[in-house]
Design the sequence.
């Protein structure tokens, strides 16, 4: 398990790739023809290796990969940058232990913030309190107590979250307020470890 | 990489693989012309928020590195593509085709009496799954129904039967289902399990939702099965016990409909009605006790030989789904554990040899290039979140193997053309591929049809009708 997590270290998330893609002007100009013709156009994928669908080749500027199209971006939460002097801070500690301190506006929720800043937090139900993929662990107990109490619905979803703790919450349900300035949350470790017991149960 | 199946497991694995392995290209095979598997055909119509993950899948599918190959099944029958034809054209094949069969009880009357349905078929039918478009369940034979099994599918069935059609009218439930449910005479639903509340598979959201339904009363549960002091239980079961003890607001004497959770009953036979000999009239159950500790999640049900009869003119079997091997597995050397209904794997998604005891040791030699995710990997349980975690773990394995340069399927050959290498054969075999663009056309028409009826969408329930949109 640990090696799998290690392998993911430094891998850009899909959203990050999207923004990288947007910064490549020549790629942006490429017309979207039918998917198969683009994807199977060997030249556009990995030059000289027509058959190799998954390439070992590192990405160089002469070989820009095609990532997700621009329209994908709109699906992610859009947050306005905070006005000077009014910013609140929230820190995400990701699965690798890296800290991301972000200046945000009052009223933003942690899921939208995370998605707008390429922090690896899924939001499978898009903030409808119906999945638990946006599970976060609030680092400080005192801070946890300052967050308005979770509803039954939120607690019901949390009960299904992997690695539930005393200070677990759903990211999509935490809305930033001045009281929460300086909030620090951890993303619970990567994958549910599929142990043999899962099979034994039946 | 080829992905077999377009449900959440296939999509979440593709998503992660595409973001971890640059230049990776995914061909996703789906036997229906429409994508999303159980998100479309399993998730209850009154839970639209759970379907929001489709937006993410849509985003994945819009990538030029992703090809949807819909309406193509894998197999040797006419109009299908044999699995062996895929192998030479991919570096890796991911099996994420889910569980297509439901488990049977194998008790007297199960196959002969009218009024017995599999929950999978019933759910598939109201969600517009083509396989069950002709099910036409008869909900008019009596007021009492039983659901055998206590998972979330069982509770979905109970809720659909009980809550009244008005709530469903604006959802994507099929029009046909609304008409049938309107005529339903069902007033009393028993959701029956062999074990107790602490062993039941349902999750709290689903049970709370049912308990809270305004005009549906909840019969009190047998409190002897709940520990006196629940404060010592871990949080998730404790909160479920709180919901069960508290019960609902609707009164049993005045509410038009009611339901109960009946525990410690093991199904013994389906019995004919006294009036109509080919129609279900009641069910017999053997009472069970739980051993060794009735409050432990792994307690076993032991028969007591005491038999009780439960009146019912309608029964739904909901004791779990089962995966099957794909035709052609043997030929290409992919094992399948028929007993567990899963592909032997190292619990991280790598297909391995099915040596004895693989499921407990997870040991066994890896079969290069083959991976699995979702229900064929870990058995048919779990919500979207667990399917996602599990898919990500498979994707991590694929990426790890790729970067570690372990052998994949066609090491050394440069013939991995993907669909390009297969489409000629597909044409000869009369396969008609549906692309993502095609699906979007079907999607659009379904939404338009829905709008006319004030619904989210009106699904096509027959493959011919889906394809007709494209002609
Ligand atoms: S995004 Fe689904 S619960 Fe927060």
Sequence:
């Amino acid at each position: 398990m640990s090696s799998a997590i290690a392998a993911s270290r430094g891998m850009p998330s899909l959203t990050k790739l999207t923004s990288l893609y947007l910064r490549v002007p020549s790629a942006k100009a490429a017309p979207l023809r039918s998917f198969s013709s683009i994807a199977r156009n060997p030249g556009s994928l990995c030059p000289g290796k027509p058959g190799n669908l998954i390439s070992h080749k590192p990405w160089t500027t002469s070989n820009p990969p095609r990532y997700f199209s621009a329209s994908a971006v709109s699906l992610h939460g859009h947050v306005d940058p905070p006005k000077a002097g009014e910013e609140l801070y929230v820190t995400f500690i990701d699965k690798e232990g890296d800290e991301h301190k972000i200046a945000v506006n009052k009223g933003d929720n942690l899921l939208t913030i995370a998605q707008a800043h390429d922090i690896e937090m899924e939001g499978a139900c898009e903030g409808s309190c119906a999945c638990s993929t946006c599970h976060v662990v609030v680092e400080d107990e005192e801070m946890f107590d300052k967050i308005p109490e979770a509803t039954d619905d939120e607690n019901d979803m949390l009960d299904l979250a992997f690695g539930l703790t005393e200070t677990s919450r759903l990211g999509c349900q935490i809305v930033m307020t001045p009281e929460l300035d300086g909030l620090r949350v951890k993303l619970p470790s990567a994958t549910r470890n599929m142990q043999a017991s899962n099979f034994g149960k039946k | 990489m080829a992905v077999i199946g377009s449900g959440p497991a296939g999509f979440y694995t593709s998503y992660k693989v595409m973001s971890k392995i640059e230049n990776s290209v995914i061909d996703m095979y789906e036997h229906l012309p429409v994508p999303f598997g159980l998100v479309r055909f399993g998730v209850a119509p009154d839970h639209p928020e759970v379907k929001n993950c489709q937006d993410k899948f849509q985003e994945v599918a819009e990538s030029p590195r992703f090809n949807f190959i819909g309406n193509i099944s894998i197999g040797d029958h006419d109009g299908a593509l044999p699995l062996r034809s895929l192998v030479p054209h991919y570096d890796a094949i991911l099996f994420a085709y889910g569980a297509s069969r439901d488990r049977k009880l194998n008790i007297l009357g199960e196959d002969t009496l009218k009024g017995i349905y599999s929950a999978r078929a019933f759910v598939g039918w109201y969600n517009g799954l083509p396989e069950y478009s002709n099910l036409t369940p008869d909900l008019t034979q009596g007021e009492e129904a039983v659901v055998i099994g206590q998972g979330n599918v069982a509770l979905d069935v109970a809720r659909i039967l009980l809550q009244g059609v008005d709530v469903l009218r604006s959802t994507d439930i099929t029009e046909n289902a609304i008409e049938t449910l309107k005529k339903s005479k069902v007033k009393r639903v028993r959701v029956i399990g062999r074990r107790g509340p602490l062993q039941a598979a349902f999750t709290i959201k689903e049970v709370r939702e049912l308990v809270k339904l305004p005009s549906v009363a909840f019969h009190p549960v047998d409190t002897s099965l709940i520990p006196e002091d629940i404060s010592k239980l871990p949080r998730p079961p404790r909160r479920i016990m709180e919901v069960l003890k508290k019960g609902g607001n609707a009164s049993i004497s005045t509410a038009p409909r009611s339901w109960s959770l009946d525990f410690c009953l093991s199904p013994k036979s389906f019995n004919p009605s006294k009036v109509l000999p080919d129609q279900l009239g009641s069910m017999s159950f053997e009472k069970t006790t739980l051993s060794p500790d009735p409050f432990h999640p792994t307690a076993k049900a032991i028969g007591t030989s005491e038999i009780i009869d439960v009146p019912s003119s309608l029964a739904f079997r909901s004791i779990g789904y089962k995966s099957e091997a794909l035709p052609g597995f043997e030929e290409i050397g992919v094992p399948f554990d028929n007993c567990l209904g899963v592909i032997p794997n190292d619990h991280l998604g790598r297909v391995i040899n099915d040596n004895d005891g693989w499921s407990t040791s997870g040991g066994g030699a890896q079969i290069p290039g083959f991976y699995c995710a979702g229900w064929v990997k870990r058995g048919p349980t779990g919500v979207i979140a667990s399917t996602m975690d599990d898919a990500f773990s498979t994707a991590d394995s694929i990426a790890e193997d790729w970067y570690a340069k372990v052998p994949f399927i066609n090491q050394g050959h440069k013939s991995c053309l993907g669909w390009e290498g297969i489409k000629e054969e597909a044409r000869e075999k009369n396969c008609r591929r549906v692309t993502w663009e095609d699906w979007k056309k079907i999607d659009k028409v379904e939404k338009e049809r829905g709008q006319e009826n004030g619904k989210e969408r009106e699904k096509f329930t027959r493959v011919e009708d889906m394809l007709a949109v494209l002609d």
Q: What stands out?
A: Residues 151 and 173 of chain A are 9 Å apart (CA to CA). The mean pLDDT of chain A is 67. The longest strand of chain A covers residues 88-93.
